[in-house]
Amino acid sequence: MRNSVFITLIISICVCSCTTPIDTVLTSEHPAIQKVMDSLDTYEVQILYTQIDTTSKGLVKFKDYAFQENQKTYFYPASTVKLPIALLASEYVTAHPELDLDTPYISKRDSVLHSVADDMRQIFAVSDNEAYNRLYDLLGRDAINTRLKALGLAPTRISHRLSTSNADAAERATIKFFPSYEGDVVTIENQTDGPIADVKAKHQQKGTGYFKDGNLMQTPFDFSKKNYFPLQAQHELMKRFFFEDQFDADERFAISYTDKIRIQKMMHTLPRKAKYDPETYYDSYGKFFLYGDSKDPIPEHIKIYNKVGYAYGTLTETAYVVDEKAGIHFLLSATILVNKNGIFNDDTYEYDTVGIPFLAQLGREIYALEKGRKQ
């Protein structure tokens, strides 16, 4: 009897020692969490959560937790790829003294004057695809992927534009910058990228079928040439951008302090504050954690610096969440696939009934955990 009690105690200790805060959160009785956990294999959930503390010497200390995160398991990143492209575009203008974020330019994609700053505003406020496509053409996938690898964010592979024909074309549109009103022009033209590099990831073939040109193809959908931005890379990018002092110089974005603060402000600015119609672009339009299942205004003291993505039934968000009033801040990244029928391109996905409610409640549960840590 004594030995069996001892063994039971040892087993209990082992189980408790393996339980993470994410595991605890996912035992929530909230229906949005339970629905996903009851059929976990269906949803391809991955979660990363970082607690952020400050030591007695004023140093930042990270404590990372993961749930089913595996950079070798593919998920479609959708618009989350706009985040690194925005930051690399800022690096581009930093590296060219004759340019800045507000320098006007014209892309051959259209005939309208733009600026990198305005493209960023559109990307973070309403996730504009054409703004991303212009910056993609400015940088090129070869330079994008080389730079992300140098920053330690491999195995990310950016391979194509979004929601446009010939999205993966190697040829890029000519761009002309106008640094002054005295006729100076900086032209970037005749740029061609190399072929799309392969990535080593599992589950790049998904589902049982997909629609193409109105016809149902009864074979898995092939994501092997699509953008690839693993959750770990997204999470690490956020760390580098908001806590650059924790990294070596070669792992930091080469962005001026002024531009960095400006970009961070864009990341948390709500659509209505960026002059978009609040009826169409409500506060949580691009913010799933905590508020995604509500159209109510987000409180002023809550700042969510983030980027979401949703396409092909996959919802993803990477965020730095700050409650200025309660002194709470944490990093959270998660992805979930909601495609019950296994058919892609049929616009039948459970975004509003399963995916967004799950991510919203996940954010609230993590926030409640953080609030408990502060008390």
From TrEMBL:
<dbReference type="InterPro" id="IPR000871">
    <property type="entry name" value="Beta-lactam_class-A"/>
</dbReference>
<feature type="domain" description="Beta-lactamase class A catalytic">
    <location>
        <begin position="67"/>
        <end position="328"/>
    </location>
</feature>
<dbReference type="InterPro" id="IPR045155">
    <property type="entry name" value="Beta-lactam_cat"/>
</dbReference>
<dbReference type="GO" id="GO:0016787">
    <property type="term" value="F:hydrolase activity"/>
</dbReference>
<dbReference type="Pfam" id="PF13354">
    <property type="entry name" value="Beta-lactamase2"/>
</dbReference>
<keyword id="KW-0378">Hydrolase</keyword>
<protein>
    <recommendedName>
        <fullName>beta-lactamase</fullName>
        <ecNumber>3.5.2.6</ecNumber>
    </recommendedName>
</protein>
<dbReference type="InterPro" id="IPR012338">
    <property type="entry name" value="Beta-lactam/transpept-like"/>
</dbReference>
<comment type="similarity">
    <text>Belongs to the class-A beta-lactamase family.</text>
</comment>
